[in-house]
Amino acid sequence: MKRRALRVAALAVSLGLLALPARAADDFSLRSFFAGHSVSGGEIRTLGLFRERFTARFEGQAKGDALDLDERFRFEDGPRLQRWHLVERGGRVAGTVETEDGEGKLQGPFPVSGTSGPDGAVLAYRGIAPGGGRWRFDFRHTITPRADGTAGN
Asked: How far is the C-alpha of 52 from the C-alpha of 1, rounded, in Å?
């Protein structure tokens, strides 16, 4: 249980290690980036105590200004889901995210706000980490397209 709590805390600060397949960097939008299927990978490191690799698979459906996105994490102790509903309009992003807790139940929705443009997107919310419990963390995802067709987060 202690290891799970450390992992959850580490996830709150380590999601910046993701690399995601993207569309062309000069026409970046959340809707075009996440429409369809994509995959990411990363590693959680907690104060030198342990390291854990994970993958995440994304399945998104864009319709008009809206994006519905399922992000399915795979950790050593099992899968976790985050379900996003975002609206991207005029450089602003608003919506919600639901996150699967340690008991397998979706918690939230937690309000999400941010910005989006050709240079990338920033999404911020206060919620639980995948596999977490009652502890809430402030998350800030900065998604930056790269020239090689991937994006950093």
From this structure: 15
Q: Which residue numbers in the chain have pLDDT < 70?
A: 1-26
The pLDDT score that the predictor gives to residue 152 is 85
Other residues' Cβ atoms within 10 Å of the Cβ of residue 83: 17
Q: What is the helix, strand, coil percentage profile of the chain, to 5?
A: 15, 60, 25
Buried b / exposed e along 22-49 (16+ C-beta atoms within 10 A): bbebeebbbbbbbbeebebebebebeee
* 45-75: pLDDT as tens digits: 777 787 888 899 999 999 999 999 999 999 8
Tell me which amino acid residue 2 is.
K
